[in-house]
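Hi R.,

Here's the chain you asked about this morning:
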Amino acid sequence: MITQNYFDYAAATPMNSEVVDSMLPYFSDDFFNPSSDYLNAKKIAKDIQTARQDIASCLGVKPTEIIFTAGGTEANNLAISGVAEKYSGSTLACSVVEHKSVIAPTLRYKHKLLEVDKTGVINLSKLKQEITDDVVLVSLILANNEIGTIMPMKETSRIIQKIRDSRKSKKNNLPLLLHTDASQAGNYLSLKPYSLGVDMMTINGGKIYGPKQSGILYVKTGIDIHPLVIGGGQERGLRSGTENVAGIIGFAKALIMSQNLREQELKRMQKLHKLFVRELNQNIPNAIINGSKKRLPNNLHITVPGIDNERVMMILDERGYQVAVGSACNASSEEPSHVLRAIGLSDKDARSSLRFTMGRFTSEESIKGLIKNLSEICG
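And the predicted structure, written out as tokens:
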């Protein structure tokens, strides 16, 4: 039974029962290695190819452009390091509010960190100035995992294309690629790479009601990157290793379901978001909502001046409500979130901030109960 009082869907989503059912045969009867030559194994290889085709159809891309990975972190690392190793000596650029799995590999190479405004949105005018002739890759998170802000990806893509055209006129043959981490976006935003104008895109199965340690990196035809994992040559040589068949099948099912339910869930979540804000304003009027108005509808990141967010989180947990004090990937660190620092919050305010993310099992009653308890604790 999934609790309605769970408010940390950005950290993990429960697997949909249909996703679980689709995966089960590959743990037992259909356990064969898809690289083997006998008929049972070839059948598994065909199932993987069908999943790849289904994903490609959902995204409006070619099956050969889908690279299976063990989740979003690996996909981000493959995109960043894969480009950096291919174009050694060139410069990488990413925003200061990226997930750590983008920032960390970027820092290994010659790089630029792109500033954002107080809502977490990239400054497009400054972006033009930052993309100098040696920049080979720009990586911008589609929807931020902490504050929910949605980046202007289409506008960024148009700027990138103009710079590409300019480079051609100057006979600069260095490519300029655009990557986006769409791990948090799949339940509410369209994930069509051609519409977004991106060359590479990361999707994480664990955020779309699919299995953890499943994901993909979309790599547009014609883009050449170095692999991180070499060996047997699976995934067109970009990700060697025996395939996680159950994970691939489950990911495909989860992605298609999340995109099919997207508009329905978007409308429901927008209604819940309005309720959440209304209840928050009425019961905790000094709470400040962080991020942009153009945000994921399931995300509310707030600062309540003077509270100790760790203490509030633990009391809420004791009362049956699961919330977050930041990104789950930063949970082991005592440092305030780099995202909150980037949008101008002081360390004191960052330690007075909480993240609430809703999902398929969130109800109006659970929101009202959460705010009631939060008001009592913060009062």
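The beta strands are 66-69, 91-95, 111-114, 135-141, 177-181, 200-204, 215-219, 288-290, 299-303, 353-357.

Let me know if you need anything else.
M.
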